[in-house]
Amino acid sequence: MGNQQGPKSIKRDIIISVGLKQTRAAILEDGRLAELLIDSDSDKRMVGDIYNAIVRKVLPGMQAAFVDIGLPKQAFLHVSDIGDDLFEYELDEDEPEEERGGRRRKKIQAIQDQLKEGQQILVQVTKEPIGTKGPRVTTEVSIPGRLLVYAPFESRLGISRKIDNQAERNRIKDLVRKIITKREGVIVRTAAEDTREEDFRNEYEQLKSLWRKVRRQASQSEAPALVYRETKLISGLLRDIFNERVDSLVIDDKEEFKQVKSYLKIIAPGLTDRIQLYTSAVPLFTHSNLDDEVRKIFNRRVWLKKGGYIVIEQTEALVSIDVNTGRYTGEKDQEETILRTNIEAAREIARQVRLRDLGGIIVCDFIDMESKTNRQAVLDELRRWLKYDRAKTKAFDVSQLGLIEMSRQRVRSSLYHSLSEPCPTCEGRGRIFTPEVIATEIERVVRKVSAEGGEKQLLVRIHPVVALHLMEKEQEVMHLLEQQTGIELKLRDDPMMQMDAISVYSLPSQKQINVN
Question: What's this model's pTM, rounded to 2 decimal places?
Answer without folding.
Answer: 0.78
